[in-house]
Amino acid sequence: MEKPRISVIGVGYVGLCTAVGFASKGYTVIASDNDPEKADKIKEGIPPFHEPDLPAMLRETIQNGHLHCLTNQTQKAVLETDITYVAVGTPSRPDGSIDLQCIETVSHDIGKALSKKSQYNVVVVKSTVVPGTTQNTVKPILEIESKKKCGTDFGLCMNPEFLRQGSAFHDTFNADRVVIGGNDKKSVDTLENLYKDFYGVNVPPIIRTTLSTAELIKYASNSLLATKISFINTIASMCEKIPGADVKAVAAAMGLDKRIGPLFLDAGLGYGGSCFPKDVKALIACSKAFGYNPELLESVENVNQIQPLKAVQFCKEQLGNLKDKNIAILGLAFKPDTDDMREARVIPIINQLTKEGAQVTAYDPVAMPTAKKIFNNQIKYATSAINCLNDADCCIIATEWSEFKKLKPKDFKENMKQPIIIDGRRIFDPEEFKQNTHFAAIGLGE
Ligand code: UDX
Fold first, then answer.
1. What domain range is 80 assigned to?
2. pLDDT tens digits for 268-279?
3. Shared-domain flag, residues 130 and 240
């Protein structure tokens, strides 16, 4: 059977991994993005962001012609393909609710293209959108612009993504499940067949459901993971008050219970990134709009707001007044293996430290260019972890990059003014570090 041709509108890390994933399996993929800088880089085979394993396959699929990238040509991409993925951004508005502007713009363009098409096309919403969006926003725009009927003349599905940054390309080929929300049977069958062909013998469970259930599955999944993190951070705060208690040991033992599981129980400075903070806020706003106040999720969000500032509190407990104190920050990315700093927990930490008059020097293996756009000259940037420690009064570990895990107490003792360490990501052995340094850590009782 001939493979369907695929278009992907919006090539952020989800869109690009999807596009390269299909292209690597021999599908013809046409991507389009309205950001010329991003599109130009992709045309040259260079990912516009740091994502392990992606560069080689992107280069190969661009060179072998399976992947084409266009600049702001949604209609052309739709006209030349059979299945169209929408993977544009859905940022938060100031009140936490979801901003659907990009989704709406793209839907208008896709609808216009559909009006010129004779053959059946399935539109697949992959962007994270609150329940009701595909049915009540995307579908009417497509029908009005195309003057066609959804379900008979063209198909519509909602297919959430669960890719983690830093392992997004690996996750593209190794999904735990595929969720397909559908407007009608033919659309869902088309997408199910596509995924059966894509995954071959390794096809994960495929869940067929309604559009709004598919939308909610994404939010419910991310909100539960965020809840696990805020839960363990709550236990960490208790541990800090209980002599001899250690959240790491608590989490390890809890995780052995099969009903709980070991993942997403790492206490730290809280969750950041492009998804969890935005999705929890959007689900709260959406739930309230539907008439239910989700108090549990409001607490999850509140704990996450307070968590990073605990690093500043620890600093003050060790140093007193922070004015003119040199603070070294190791790690800027919201998590390791990415240069992304969206909602990175280090941002409120640095803002508070500088507000209190501290001099901040930071180092991150890949996120320094991103940090420079956020902080400009407000902080100094070091050339290595050791260089960052030079002459520092206190060091905060803010991201658990593997290169920081190799640091030893002597590295801090030899380079800092005084070896005061705040392990915000629990990467060091307290026994080893407590003997040789002034060591404080999230979730570690005195
Ligand atoms: C997340 C979801 O995992 C993914 O399924 C979804 O599609 C997009 O959002 P991502 O944002 O890439 O992926 O990061 P993830 O690895 O889930 O971590 C999110 C944040 O939680 C990071 O800031 C991380 O440091 C923090 N975290 C994670 C913890 O603080 N503790 C943990 O135990 C796990």
1. 6-209
2. 999 999 999 999
3. no
